[in-house]
Amino acid sequence: MEALLTFIHQLPKGLDVVVSNAGKSIRRPIKDSLDRYHDFSRTMAINYFAPVQLLLSVIPLLQKNQGQIINVSTINAMLHPFPYWAAYQSSKSAFDIWFRSAAPELNALGIATTSIYLPLVKTPMVLPTEAYRKMPAMSPSHVAKIICKSMYTKRKKYRPWWLPLGQFGSLVFGGLLEQFILSNVRKKGN
Questions:
Q1: Hey, is 137 helix, strand or coil?
Q2: Residue-wise pLDDT tens digits, 82-107
Q3: What is the C-alpha R_g of the chain?
Q4: 174 by DSSP, 3-state: which?
Q5: Taking Cα atoms as reference points, which of 21, 100, 12 lies closest to residue 54?
Q6: Residues catalogued as catalytic
Q7: Is the four-CA dihedral 91, 190, 136, 139 of positive or negative sign?
Q8: What is the pLDDT of residues 28-68, one digit of tens each?
Q9: pTM
Q10: Could you give the domains of the chain?
Q11: What is the pLDDT of residue 27?
């Protein structure tokens, strides 16, 4: 991180855009995590602390150039949490909340902010999870187009058209969803 920050601060024309796409994913039941605290600390280090450290350092450069920060987040930060993803969902949600909390201050400094909420994307990160190999997922090239388009539109938020419906469902049917999830977790024996 220190080498990267030194390099960035030596750029002759400063910095115009930062795309924060930190992502370390772990799918593991809590009972299998009891002696694996390091899974949580590592995931927070990559998905939360590293992007916060990077952005705190480059805010003056972005302010000088009236730049933009694009955070590539996950739809999970906006929906009811699911079991087995405690480390990932909490770390991505922590940064999402940090970024949304900082956005008004950044905007007041002349820095545009964009949050991009994505469903599953077919990247090497999903390959270890067998169930995800067969699920529908966005292609990385489609996601790249969304990110690039947000650089010139400076739209505040991108989300799939159906995400507000999922959020509504999470809110209205949260209790039923919890019962359904609990029933499935019990069936699996985790």
A1: coil
A2: 899 999 999 999 999 999 999 999 99
A3: 18
A4: helix
A5: 21
A6: 88
A7: positive
A8: 999 999 999 999 999 999 999 999 999 999 999 999 999 99
A9: 0.91
A10: 2-162 (3.40.50.720)
A11: 87
